[in-house]
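To the wet lab folks,

You asked to see what we're planning to order before we commit. Fair enough. Below is the target structure as tokens, and below that is the sequence we designed to fit it. If anything looks off to you, flag it before the synthesis order goes out.
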């Protein structure tokens, strides 16, 4: 039987018994707390960027609309934001919002009614919002993508 070998970069280590590779150590570990470390957090954040950029790569012309999540349909600003969404869609623009309620919902709604692509880039907040029903392409935290 050949002596097990292990490589660490340019270093070759030969030892008796089983080859103790980094992969084997990782697979046999009982402690998974490493997934909460900063390097893993960076990787999770990077994956969210990759998912978001991938989902939006084909969008050529878009306008981002910012506004309050607390505006209701009864507020005159809701109707104004809805009409802005309609006009942007008719001019050939996609509308991007935070995907939540209020002004964001109104702009997404108007865009959808105007025949445009309605996009929501949603974040996770403890009390505020979920994705509004007028979003065609939704990108949520943790890289989840919903198409409607």
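Sequence we intend to order:
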């Amino acid at each position: 039987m050949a002596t097990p070998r292990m490589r660490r970069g340019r270093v070759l280590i030969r030892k008796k018994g089983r080859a103790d590779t980094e992969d084997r150590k990782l697979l046999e570990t009982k402690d998974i707390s490493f997934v909460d470390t900063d390097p893993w957090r960076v990787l999770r954040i990077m994956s969210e960027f990759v998912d978001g950029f991938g989902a939006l790569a084909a969008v050529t012309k878009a306008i981002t609309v910012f506004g309050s999540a607390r505006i209701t349909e009864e507020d005159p600003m809701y109707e104004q934001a809805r009409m802005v969404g309609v006009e942007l869609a008719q001019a050939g623009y996609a509308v991007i919002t935070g995907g939540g309620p209020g002004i964001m919902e109104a702009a997404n709604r108007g865009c959808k009614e105007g025949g445009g692509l309605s996009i929501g880039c949603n974040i996770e907040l403890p009390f505020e919002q979920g994705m509004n029903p007028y979003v065609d392409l939704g990108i949520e935290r943790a890289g989840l993508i919903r198409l409607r």
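Structural context that might help your review: Residues 60-147 form a domain with the Rossmann fold fold (CATH 3.40.50.450). The beta strands are 5-8, 11-14, 62-64, 94-97, 118-121, 137-140, 144-147.

Thanks,
Computational group
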